[in-house]
Design a protein that fits this description.
Two copies of one chain form a homodimer. In chain A, about 35% of the residues lie in helices and about 20% in strands. The two termini of chain A are about 35 Å apart. Chain A has four domains: about 80 residues, 2-Layer Sandwich (Uridine Diphospho-n-acetylenolpyruvylglucosamine Reductase, domain 2); about 120 residues, Uridine Diphospho-n-acetylenolpyruvylglucosamine Reductase, domain 3 (2-Layer Sandwich); about 110 residues, 2-Layer Sandwich (Alpha-Beta Plaits); about 90 residues, 2-Layer Sandwich (Alpha-Beta Plaits), CATH 3.30.70.2740. In chain A, strands 12, 13, 14, 15, 16, 17, 18 and 19 form an eight-stranded antiparallel beta sheet that branches. The first copy, chain A, is globular, with a radius of gyration of 22 Å. Chain A contains 15 helices and 19 strands. By secondary structure, the first copy, chain A, is of the alpha+beta class. At the A-B interface, strand 9, helix 7, strand 11, helix 8 and helix 15 of A face strand 9, helix 8, strand 11, helix 9 and helix 16 of B.
Chain lengths: ~450, ~450
């Protein structure tokens, strides 16, 4: 351990102990690189964040910011010679305002804690990434996180009104507003949201809240063919059903769930749809949804307005990833396609899985076309690693062909940086580099992440 | 007329005739400067826009982009020696997709035309600026326009999914996506939306649509005191009533309306609230709203689920500006405050009006705190002009004091450029300049507009 690492960082220094640093050195992604940082810093205030940024600038060190490390694209992986700035000590809910329906929070607040705190004021913060009980609001903002609730409500970017952020030069900038509307100047808030630590370090977030919704009504529908499930999604969209959640799972995922925890799905089931409405008239919304599923060829349709029964119906969705994880090492992908092309994507994934000799389960948010093909492989077998990566690339390419995007909610990070230049045109790639240069001329904030490489 | 102006512009050249150019040389703002452009260009395609931008760069001319010229902050005013790029020939609705609920449109499409076109597909485009039947989607995007419908739905920025834009160097960039979600790279779409022609020229917009809502139920409530109206707004917010519209008008505005077109408001009425819900259960939402207004001290409350009657109740809101305009020259201001501070703002405006000897009517969007104090003055009397500007500055300062913003929906333009540096901190001002420099290093796109001056 180098003494130079210990001095000068002030009270923000958490550790330079290799074991501690190792536990902060990577997120939950696969196929991304990480290295040991030179120090883990955990500032307790905006001013301490600014000091860390100034000190890093003075030493010429890269800065990687980490929330809870639940990311899936390598955006919080420490880099060789970088410092690792953890936001976990910045964990105060600064204020909750029921009249303006906003909360002001520090970045290290766990998303689930914020959701619980605002509920006590009769308010609701909808974004609920899969890791909602461990991920942080700052990480959600930096990566543009979303979740199950996003069909009707939108994701993190739709809820962030304003930010405070530390910039590469150690200055602190406030963006956005507290009011419901405001158009004073460029929308730098939206620019920072989703910039994955490459433009600044979020030190405070102002999020809007909505009134606490009604208790939900839930529906589960099974389909004998993928095409019928696709028709149902189309009919639900066209009818304008107000669903707070609409999830799809394919045969592979269902079969993995049945192996782990038999829920009684027929082996002939090609896909299921799970829907929920928290509308004041949720019962009639879900009844309409159930009718449309039946008319589209659903085999079984169950509806419940009982909270506990609803949770049971949703259980299958919660088991999707744990069930697939049991089958081997996994690479959880994240693409988004137009809702009308979900079936095309799943069919293509089935073809790719067969061709590569892999198990790939698809589940995801049918309400917005955001699918999570989950590739199961054997990390210990180099040929299987290569096959997994090949499948990953083929799925990403197919999503683009279908008019989709390479990432719906997990972000670009290190994992998809090579793909970003394929989705964007040359002029947009150039604009990314110019924006990065404007905010971070010496390329110290999360270098090599999120923006297209040369 | 200089021959040099006529050659080289290609088919995009509309006119160099002074009379024609004069009609394109300014928007509807007051107290902003404008000059005669050197030419009015009206390209018919993205490629023609790019050619105009390249030719302007070659000649070293500034480019001011204009939609329908309905702006209220001088953002589309021609500048000395600039060309004026009008988008009115780019007026195609490229596609409407009922499955993905998106429309792709050229910037010159009239907002009202888009709204009518998507209704035929059972879809709804909510943003409805006051000028909805004459303003353009491109202008709405460039200025971040909103309108009456924004309490529940949000404004233009909440509906733009992707853009195509011509940049200062004549290249064309695509940003954003067509899918419901997508987080690939920086949110350059939001950066361009609201940038008032200073970063690029919007050549195509992809907007999301929502299902056509239910027929609305409407409420009008009158209040004897401003405080009672403020309490009602607070109660409506806290109760989470789902209102698609919630407008407030003050005594001065009501009195101007009564003078023009007597609707029978009592002279003791200090304020009215107008509410509308287009929820599936709009009747119960508005009944709840009416009960809350009565409990807050409303004097008369009228509710109707009849379309024609609802229109009659809304008539007062539509007459607000025309009625105030009859009283003299007018300066329509636009500030946004937290909803709980609307009454404080209106009270302050009353004080300012008394002090300056001016009539200032306040009406606006109570659902989001966006108020439009409208200053009536006599353009022919220099002292009254000065008083009007003084009142304008005092109102803007008061909005900031109350935790609000200098502009809720009209944009910064030329009118409020001097104020932007007061709302933003030094670091944010610097970030604005750096972003501008990154996109437009030679400062040719709407120079001197929207971003803080030195």
């Amino acid at each position: 351990m180098d003494d130079a690492n210990l001095s000068g960082w002030g009270p923000a220094l958490l550790s330079t102990d290799p074991e501690v640093m190792a536990s902060y050195s990577r997120d939950q992604s696969r196929f991304t690189e990480h290295a040991m940082p030179v120090a883990v810093l955990a500032p307790r205030s905006t001013e301490e964040v600014a000091e860390v940024l100034r000190e890093a600038a003075r030493r010429g060190l890269a800065v990687v910011t980490r929330g809870a490390g639940t990311g899936l694209s390598g955006g919080a992986n420490a880099q060789r010679g970088s410092i690792l700035l953890s936001t976990h000590r910045l964990d105060s809910i600064v204020s909750i305002d029921p009249d303006e329906q906003v909360a002001v929070v520090q970045p290290g607040v766990i998303t689930g804690h914020l959701r619980a705190a605002v509920l006590e004021h009769g308010l609701f913060y909808p974004p609920d990434p899969g890791s909602v009980d461990s991920c942080t609001i700052g990480g959600n903002g930096a990566t543009n996180a979303r979740g199950l609730c996003c069909g009707q409500y939108g994701g993190t970017p739709d809820f962030v009104r304003g930010l405070e952020g530390g910039l590469a030069d150690g200055s602190v900038m406030r963006t956005g507003r507290r009011t419901a509307k405001g158009v004073a100047g460029y929308d730098l808030t939206s620019l920072l949201v989703g910039s994955e630590g490459t433009l600044g370090v979020i030190t405070e977030i102002t999020v809007r809240l909505v009134p606490r919704p009604a208790p939900p009504t839930t529906m589960l529908a099974t389909f004998g063919t993928l095409a019928a499930a696709g028709t149902a999604v189309q009919q639900l969209t066209r009818a304008g059903t107000r669903l707070s959640l609409l999830e799809i799972m394919d045969r592979t995922t269902l079969s993995a769930i049945e192996s782990m925890s038999p829920l009684g799905f027929d082996t002939g089931t090609a896909a299921i749809l799970l829907a929920q409405s928290d509308d004041p008239d949720s019962a009639s919304q879900v009844t309409l949804a159930a009718d449309l599923c039946r008319a589209s060829g659903a085999e079984d349709v169950a509806v419940s307005d009982d909270g506990r029964e609803g949770d049971l119906l949703l259980q299958a969705r919660r088991l999707a990833l744990p069930a697939l994880e049991r089958l081997g090492d996994w690479l959880l992908d994240d693409v988004c396609v137009p809702r009308s092309r979900i079936v095309d994507l799943i069919t293509s994934v089935e073809d790719i899985a067969a061709r590569e000799g892999l198990v790939i389960g698809v589940f995801g948010h049918a309400g917005d076309g955001n699918m999570h093909p989950t590739i199961i492989y054997d990390e210990g077998r180099p040929d299987r690693r290569v096959a997994a990566l090949r499948a990953f690339d083929q799925i990403t390419a197919r999503a683009l062909e279908l008019g989709g995007t390479i990432t719906g909610e997990h972000g670009v990070g290190a994992l998809k940086r090579g793909w970003l230049g394929t989705e964007l045109d040359a002029s947009a790639v150039r604009a990314h580099r110019l924006v990065k240069q404007a905010f971070d001329p010496r390329d110290v904030l999360n270098p090599g992440i999120a923006i297209p490489g040369p």
